[in-house]
Design a protein that fits this description.
Length: 380
């Protein structure tokens, strides 16, 4: 009897999760638009905060500089890197990339958030496009984001980036953080991607509770999106090949991100983390029960657990096609049971890190005053 209760509970959780995923894929689908702006295109400041990013910064900047958008500037802030990040930025000076040196990190700020605030004040564009170093854009991405924000009359837009290198191990065994953000999103708390977001610069600086009020938040863009959602000034879309936003993130970097993000994402309380872990366990249970029940010749239970497993395969397949494309799709689908177990362990790890105040972001503690390092100054 206990086995069937687990199967029923797993079916309920899987059905609800699947409904949330499929609803979000439809709700936030990218719809191409066209606006007649003529010569009145707004200016855009592409802002990148970099800390020890020499492994990915050059590739990111190459893609940014290939943009066809005419009224664009590029600013890169070096946040006290202790590698060659600053020298890489310097090497792009001939292409017009502006180097912004990191400042002393004041109390009550995380490095990336303070970098965002500094970049917003240094920028001159009508809009600020915050871009993660692991995020790659196409030549037409900036134009299409501007079209979206103007056509929909919004102040901020963020994009769920695609993963188009699906056969890499970092994609096959990667986390599904963006999927959980869709599942946990609500109308009052919409999903928001830190990988790439475009915001009206003046509106950002005028917000009553802007970046200065969320200096220690690991997801500041979520709080800003929530504020703007109250006035219907926020818009979220799921990236497509037409939009041209994708990311290539190493597996270790993905795991480090989940350490900071998962516990706050599920509610930032012990009970919310418990129920999230229980839900993940129930999602994984059919894959364990299916062979076990058949081995015990409980064919009814085995078939029931198999059918429940297929439910989660359906919505995971839909999410993968929409956000990963078809490369490596079969392998990733086969690995789905492993991914669920991995997600459970990552959530547990995030909870333990937060409960012991040992969460780190680029070598700095999140729950304590960060340790400052002198930044490299060009032509000092």
């Amino acid at each position: 009897m206990g086995v069937y209760l687990i199967i029923i509970a797993s079916l309920v959780i899987s059905t609800y999760t699947g409904w949330r995923v499929l609803w979000a894929l439809n709700r936030y689908e990218y719809v191409p638009v066209s606006t007649e702006t003529g010569n009145d295109l707004p200016t855009v400041s592409v802002c990148i905060a970099a800390r020890n990013e020499m492994h990915a910064l050059s590739q990111c900047l190459d893609y940014v500089l290939s943009s066809s958008y005419e009224k664009m500037e590029v600013l890169v802030l070096d946040d006290s890197s202790n590698d060659e990040t600053s020298r890489i930025i310097q090497s792009y000076a001939h292409a017009g990339v502006r180097f912004v040196p990191g400042r002393d990190l004041p109390y009550g700020w995380l490095g990336k958030n303070h970098s965002f605030q500094t970049l917003a004040k240094e920028a001159s564009g009508d809009y600020v496009l915050y871009l993660g170093v692991d995020t790659l854009i196409s030549p037409f991405t900036v134009s299409r984001l501007v079209e979206q924000i103007l056509a929909n009359d919004k102040k901020m837009i963020s994009v769920l980036p695609r993963r188009e290198d699906g056969r890499r191990l970092s994609a096959l065994f990667g986390t599904v953080r963006y999927m959980w953000e869709l599942v946990y999103a609500k109308r009052s708390t919409p999903p928001s991607s830190g990988a790439i977001w475009l915001i009206d610069r003046q509106r950002l600086l005028e917000l009553d509770r802007g970046l200065e009020d969320y200096g220690l938040s690991v997801r500041p863009e979520v709080h800003i999106a929530k504020q703007l959602q109250t006035t219907r000034d926020y818009y979220y879309i799921i990236g497509t090949p037409e939009l041209g936003v994708r990311y290539e993130k190493r597996l270790a970097s993905q795991f480090a991100s989940t350490e900071r993000v998962y516990y706050p994402l599920v509610g930032h309380t012990i009970m919310s983390a418990f129920f999230a872990g229980l839900s993940l366990g129930l999602l994984a249970s059919p894959y364990v029960l299916f062979p076990l029940l058949f081995f015990q010749q409980n064919y009814i239970g085995g078939v029931a657990s198999l059918l429940v497993a297929l439910v989660s395969y359906v919505w995971f397949l839909a999410f993968s096609v929409d956000t990963y494309g078809k490369k490596g799709l079969l392998l990733r689908t086969i690995l789905w049971p492993y991914v669920i177990v991995q997600e459970y362990l990552l959530l547990l790890h995030s909870f333990l890190r937060y409960s012991t105040h040992t969460v780190r972001w680029k070598g700095r503690k999140v729950n304590a005053r960060p340790t400052n390092r002198d930044h490299y100054v060009i032509d000092e």
